[in-house]
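INPUT
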Amino acid sequence: MLYFENDYSEGAHEKILQRLTDTNMEHLSGYGADPYCSSAKDKIRSACQCPDADIYFLSGGTQTNQIVICSMLRQYEGVLSASTGHIGVHEAGAIEYTGHKVLELPQKDGKITASALSSYLENFYGDANHEHMVFPGMVYISHPTEYGTLYSKEELESVSQVCREYHIPLYMDGARLITGLACPEKDLTLPDIARLCDVFYIGGTKAGTLCGEAVVFTKQNTPAHFMTTVKQHGALLAKGRLLGIQFDTLFTDQLYQEIGKAAIETASILKKGFQEKGYQLYNDSPTNQIFVILDDEKMEKLKKNVVFSFWEKPDNTHTIVRFATSWATKKDEIKQLLSLL
Amino acid sequence: MLYFENDYSEGAHEKILQRLTDTNMEHLSGYGADPYCSSAKDKIRSACQCPDADIYFLSGGTQTNQIVICSMLRQYEGVLSASTGHIGVHEAGAIEYTGHKVLELPQKDGKITASALSSYLENFYGDANHEHMVFPGMVYISHPTEYGTLYSKEELESVSQVCREYHIPLYMDGARLITGLACPEKDLTLPDIARLCDVFYIGGTKAGTLCGEAVVFTKQNTPAHFMTTVKQHGALLAKGRLLGIQFDTLFTDQLYQEIGKAAIETASILKKGFQEKGYQLYNDSPTNQIFVILDDEKMEKLKKNVVFSFWEKPDNTHTIVRFATSWATKKDEIKQLLSLL
Amino acid sequence: MLYFENDYSEGAHEKILQRLTDTNMEHLSGYGADPYCSSAKDKIRSACQCPDADIYFLSGGTQTNQIVICSMLRQYEGVLSASTGHIGVHEAGAIEYTGHKVLELPQKDGKITASALSSYLENFYGDANHEHMVFPGMVYISHPTEYGTLYSKEELESVSQVCREYHIPLYMDGARLITGLACPEKDLTLPDIARLCDVFYIGGTKAGTLCGEAVVFTKQNTPAHFMTTVKQHGALLAKGRLLGIQFDTLFTDQLYQEIGKAAIETASILKKGFQEKGYQLYNDSPTNQIFVILDDEKMEKLKKNVVFSFWEKPDNTHTIVRFATSWATKKDEIKQLLSLL
Amino acid sequence: MLYFENDYSEGAHEKILQRLTDTNMEHLSGYGADPYCSSAKDKIRSACQCPDADIYFLSGGTQTNQIVICSMLRQYEGVLSASTGHIGVHEAGAIEYTGHKVLELPQKDGKITASALSSYLENFYGDANHEHMVFPGMVYISHPTEYGTLYSKEELESVSQVCREYHIPLYMDGARLITGLACPEKDLTLPDIARLCDVFYIGGTKAGTLCGEAVVFTKQNTPAHFMTTVKQHGALLAKGRLLGIQFDTLFTDQLYQEIGKAAIETASILKKGFQEKGYQLYNDSPTNQIFVILDDEKMEKLKKNVVFSFWEKPDNTHTIVRFATSWATKKDEIKQLLSLL
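OUTPUT
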């Protein structure tokens, strides 16, 4: 069987696991007050060229979205998101659970535009009844998006500019950011992101850690007593070392770049392979998620040897499916898949 | 320096780490749908002699308390707890965050009594205004308690009996359960606990895992769509294997008993040592947390070589401090500490 | 100045105010345990031909929506609503504040269709990832809708049928129900609504009370300890008599029908007048809200003498505005308005 | 039958009802934007000698406590209250429902002391683990208290002083404030309260309105978009006039003083009567709630002719009961009650 259904099916990158083993019996303080957490934060600050950034480690993506969003919003505010945003669709209402509405913006390829954002805000404040409505208090974007696409620097700059104008923070969900950064087509660097976003996270789970996401507050804007909020959400790991050691390793000798590159390389071979064999791609994703339109017969046949993800049905006889690669995907597996097509 | 400040200062037990390494490159399904989670659940069911138990793995204790309690309570209900209960004091209001009040019961040595519980409930339902008050909808106990003490079988049976009478579930916070089970003075076994409680958790973090707690619903009483609730709380790990593999190892060849015994052995040597040297114990904790009343001068001197935890000040010249042992504590460290006293 | 901006600009219908005065010095129990509340409930049960209905009085519409919805949903569920539903747009996130997502359905003239509902539910349960999504746990409709339209009996029966199939309750927001019932074009009676909905409310505020809405649970399905939930939301009036006396009067000698009829009569004269004078109606609302497309110049002129509500802008030179009548609108005011057109 | 069970058993003071009737057919803007609300606010500002105060009208006490507290606290904060505080006991968990813990302070006669408050805060910030605990973010007091007692000016100044030191707001629940102000023993005036508290409310429901409480933010410290928060809680009445007209009348020609005085006069006759007849008062309440210790036989006999409230049982043969007077209590009723004793 060949596995392409996601990018978190293996354990940890071997260097990360080795580091956990090497440090295992060291006696360390709990709750993130250990030297590995500090060191990891320093390395991330440096990679972001953002020496003042405040950094926190959490365990998973939904947890991170929930805590960041609800700690930055005021009670009467909601968060703006593309209608396809992960927070609005596949997080079981984690944002609403904290009392906040996800306000939908139109999307294209999983991305919002500065002009749609601007219209929304202008209309909102122009509406005489807006005091009876949820105030837009934050903008959420994912990069890469749920459709594998990337914001260009120009696009992010425009969105960021609108946020500045309206004094609302811009938050980037970077569950797959490390892969996005490794993409040759990418336009945005870590320092760009740190400059343009008020807060973002660098996902570990989909980039070779066992678990863990690094939240980066870039503008000395960490909500007061953020650690207490993390605890209140049940998200403060006693053995904070588990996160610190993994991120410290990820940012040592650019391991994160190596991990991202590996996923992109196999993805681009696969993408080219699909195209050469005449398959129709659903969109032009430059990252490690490739969306293909299969006719249903073909799909059923392929299923016998390959695991991939159902995405949606464009019509009665075709299906959009997703193939994901990761740091753990072997070129040989790609070869086998291509020979099956 | 000698470290006795808690039981979660090292990484994982070596067998657990080894197992993570051995299975690292296996391709496994996410979100807990992997064979290690299944196998771990089977082993726990068997250790509890509770073949129908539903078991879920979560990451930490506060998270577990929050999710179990809020998913079992109805909106208008609160949870009864000893006034010293962890949920009421040291979880940053995690229960209240979900909309539920922690209703305090009087405690002795961290334990509640069936009679105090019974009085509370009788008074509540006898109060003509109780429709204006928070309904008691669950009983929370910790075992071992925050003071290292254990419920006897008789005590737990009585508390459980009152819960049955009033049709409210009994929930045990077993953050240190594995250590409690290994204690020669213990009266309660895992099957007793599974029989008498409606739900409880077996803590991994304080018993040699990197993270992880196993929630056991014992009466086919899992709240509907519990997994969705877990996701809604941001507590569903993509790499569920991290928890499954660790718990599977913990319950293979009784490793959990070995781990518990190790903590208890060093604790009992230490306890006897304190007593022989004329130190006054604050209470008669039979588990791995030893509470000692130190005169402040002595305490300051000891601090130079030993790390321990401040508990409370009984008067102006003395302090109650806690020494905790764990599976990782070496007998030699105990010897060194005793020679310093 | 002529006032047509809403249907809650005057105080109470004179009979209601008189009754409040007549009973003012009676010594009555608080919190709804007075004979007027009982009598009002009996009269409503009888008007609904639903002898088993449980009835509660609350103060306002948003409060009612919030409490009914959150007390009937489980934690992991959201409420389905037309995208134009009041709960999703103009209630400041009151539903999300209680932790629940408003799940949008497509609408036409403010109404949802059984087939769109059915599709949504089928897709949801057909989605392999639905455990990561918000469960649809209730259907919210408004009748009359935010656009003044009414469900036909056939439409409501179909929607109700889908709800039965999926075992989710159907909830009708009847803020303007009394007016809807008085409409000659209406197809649905109170007994129909009680039979087809699991819960609905009869709005008082927009039908001549000072405040107050009557919630009707039709299927012996009142959430447990509903009164405590009402208290928990700060919605239990000490002087419950204020609501009981008003609703008792509203349902004495069919006053509610008289009130509804008065609003409809003036509205239909006005509507005909608009049509005769060649104005374009935005939709064919049969109730007391009339939506007219005005050219902007005309609108500005009219504003000098008439108060009405801005609705939306269909293009750059026109505006959709709303004229609302009520029990307090005088025929002479209609005449004056028509002569201004 | 004689009724002394509470101070909200009649409708409205006749002048208030008359004013509602006089203004009934005036066409007024909704949601509090009417001239009566404005005028009422001006009169309250003036009575408080606090020209900058922001004033909002809400419907009931629990609603007011819930909205004021949750809008002023940050997510990680709780509210300090006497253990007997209404918010902690008889509001069905309304504060916890908004995610915030009620942190208990010791009480005497329903009051907290500056020194107990100061100790709590000092201990909290002195605790090395306080980041894992609920932050004290507000102080709640009731005046008169649940036991009918009053803070002296010195007491309130000291409590206020501690709040200033720790930068946490002081909030007074004035459900019965109007009665407290009318008490000859009272030390605190409305301007004192406005000066010493950051926010407080003046209760209408227990002082002759049909419903309604006036929240006063005294330090230009209204939470941003407070009206939207009110709406989000379902607490924004469409016919805001109902509250505005009542409070405007209450503060016209010092009606509120007249109403308070009436309640106090009958209470003091009653209190003296109890004392003269040798009854034991439970405490020395100077306001309109009188707590008497009755032997149970006597109590049962009295119940046949008088309605009063059960409070608590000090021993097996006695009961503490409460007699409440109000603006509507007639001197003749007092005479009849005394003759029954």
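end of record. Chain B has a mean pLDDT of 97.
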